[in-house]
C-alpha cells in the first residue's frame, strides 16, 4: 500500500511538472553527496572558483539537502529548455551574449513555476515541508539532475540530456516526502573532446574539470576587477557569458527551440548593431535588459567587456 502511494505521489508530481511547462522532471533520494565532497574540496582548494567566494560558503549544506530542509527525503529536479529559435550575432563580427540571457531572467520564470508546483503538492498531497531552489541556495544542481536520471555531466561540466542537449536550466524542489527515485543514466561523451579543443582560454583543464577562474563567462560576469591582459584576443566577441563549449557539443544537434515566451529576446536586442553596443546608454540598457540576467554585470561591467573585446581585433 505504501509503495503504491509513493508511486502515485511521484507520478502526480511529474505530470504536474509537465503541465507547468517543464521539459523534464526526475527524483533522487535526499542524502549526503559522499562522492562529490572530496571533488568539491579539491576544486575549492585549487582556487578554481576565482572571486566567486559564495562557492566556498555553506560547504556542508551544499553536500547535504537535509541541512536545507529538515527531514528531507526527496530532491525533485526539473529542467527547462532555453534554446532560442535564432541566435543573436553568432555570425560575422557582432557582439555575442550567452543564449541563457536572451530573455527574462530564468530565476523569475522558473521560481514562479516551481512555487506553483509546490502549491499543487500541498493541494493534492497535503502537509509537505518543502522549499524550491533556483540558484538561490548552495544546491549542486547538475549533481542532482544527474542522480535523478535526467542526463549526465559532460566533459565541459554542463548537464547533457540525450533528448535535447545541454541548453537547459536546472532547478530543484526539496521535500520531506518519500518519492520513487530515478536511477542515473550512462555517460555518452565517449572519446569526444570537442569542448576541450574549442575552449579559447583552456578553462576545461581536463575532461570533467573546469577552472572557473579561466572561463570567459567568469571574466565577463563574475570578475569585478579589470580583465587580465593574458586572455586578450581570446574572447571571440563574447561580452556576456560564453556558449562555445556547448555550441560545439555534438549532442546539441538535438537542441530545439524552447516553448517559453518569457525567454524570447527583447525585440531591441537583435536590432543592436556593433556600434549600438559600443555606444549603449543607461536608458537603452535599462529598456532592453530590464528583466534580463545581463543586469548582473551592470552597464559599467558590460562597457568594460565591450571595450576589452573591441581592442582584441577579432
UniProtKB/TrEMBL annotation:
- GO BP, one annotated term: tRNA queuosine(34) biosynthetic process
Which biological pathway?
tRNA modification; tRNA-queuosine biosynthesis
Subcellular location per UniProt equals: Cytoplasm
Record domain 4Fe-4S ferredoxin-type: where: 177-209
- List of residues binding [4Fe-4S] cluster 2: 199, 215, 242, 245
Q: Which UniProt keywords apply?
A: 4Fe-4S, Cobalamin, Cobalt, Cytoplasm, Iron, Iron-sulfur, Metal-binding, Oxidoreductase, Queuosine biosynthesis, tRNA processing
Which metal ions or organic cofactors does this protein require, according to UniProt?
A: cob(II)alamin; [4Fe-4S] cluster
- Output the InterPro entries linked to this UniProt entry: 4Fe4S_Fe-S-bd, 4Fe4S_Fe_S_CS, QueG, QueG_DUF1730
Enzyme Commission number(s) from the entry: 1.17.99.6
Q: Which reaction does it catalyse?
A: epoxyqueuosine(34) in tRNA + AH2 = queuosine(34) in tRNA + A + H2O
**SUPFAM superfamilies, from UniProt?**
alpha-helical ferredoxin
Subunit structure of this chain's protein: Monomer.
Question: Which family is this protein grouped under?
Answer: Belongs to the QueG family.
Protein name listed in UniProt: Epoxyqueuosine reductase
